[in-house]
Every structure is written in C-alpha cells, then in structure tokens.
Design goal:
Helix content: over 70%
InterPro entries: Hemerythrin-like
Largest sheet: 2 strands, antiparallel
Radius of gyration: 18 Å
Protein name: Hemerythrin-like domain-containing protein
Pfam families: Hemerythrin
Strand content: under 5%
Strand order of the largest sheet: 1-2
Shape: elongated
Amino acid sequence: MNRTHAVLLHRHVFGFVSKSPIIAWGFRAPVRCVSSQVSGADTVKRTLESFGGMENDVLDESDMRPIDDLIITDHKWLLSSTIRKLCQRFQNECDEDKKREILAKYTRLVSLHTTAEESVLYPKLEILAASGTPLDVVHLKEGHEKVREGLARAEEMIDVEHKGTRKSSVMEVLTKVMKELDAHMTTEERSDLVKLRSEVDEATRTTLGTEFRIAKAVG
C-alpha cells in the first residue's frame, strides 16, 4: 500500500481528503482525511476487497460495530489465540528461516493493530483528554513502543543465535512482549475504552470502528 493508494482509498470511502485531525495510515507518513457518514457495509466491503481485503484478520469487513467493541474482539483474537499459537510454533521450530517467517507474521499482526489504534483511536482519546477526560494517551503510546522494541530485539537475536546466544533467549523476549501486550490491552479495555464509551455516542464510535477496520486493512 503506497501513499497514492491510501489517498484513493479514503477518497473512495469518505468522499475527499483534507487536513482534518482524523488520521488514517497505510504507510509511514499519515494521510489526513475527513470522516463522514459511510454509506453502509456494502461500500466498506467493496473498498476493502479492492485493496486486498483483511487477510489474517478476525474483523469481518461487514462488521459495523463501534470501535470499542472491535478493539476488544481484536485483543482477544490477537493475544488469546493467534499470538500464543505463533509463539508455540516459534518455540517448536528448528529451521531458522521458518522461525524468521513466524516472527515476521507475529510482528506484522501486532503492527497492524497498534498502527490502527494510533491512527484512529488515540487521536480521539487525545481530543477527550484535552477537554478534561482523565486519559493518559502518552502512556498508551509508550506501551506500543515497548512492544515494538521487544519485537525488534527478538529479530536481531535470531541472527546471532548460532553465534552462542541461548536458544531460549528469543522465546524469553517474546514471552515478555506477550505480557506487555496483555497489560496494555487490559488497561485499554478497563479504562480507556470505558471512558470512550461514556463520552462518545454510538454513531461516532461506529464510524471510528469503520476507520479502524480500514486502517488495519491497508496497513
């Protein structure tokens, strides 16, 4: 997904692109777009399909739930099943190339989720925080950064395992990453998403949910 494709995607879904604070990411530099009423699940489905759908994702393109519900579903899928299974596969795999593939998939899935949160959820939380709602978005971003650093470290360690690094060391790093993800997701669900739900109406949260799914699809 390059910048041109992402701009076209948001023009197709939202009608136009401008300098609104709502940000959608499909690449390193953000595209800023105005969120407007999406014309139903069919439009979103066609848009996502035209950009390759949502491969390896638990969120269906026709799922029009609010963002808080979608994120909780994504959390359960990521941590409770997908990532734990990938860690088990990684631990049991002996081939170095296959281990790299497993870790790359692990990193990709985490990146899609965290980037979508940072581009759609966190800007909204920052607006609420500025208006007086007790939210610590900086802490949330720091949680994502810790996870990224852990995954980057694991990738580096694979390359030096054959030079004397203990075989279990990469797995120890991944286990720590899982614990950090678990703590981060728990905080979001028990605090930040609860406050979002109490401060933002369902229609707006549903629109944010659509943006979240699109951000994951084009990530």
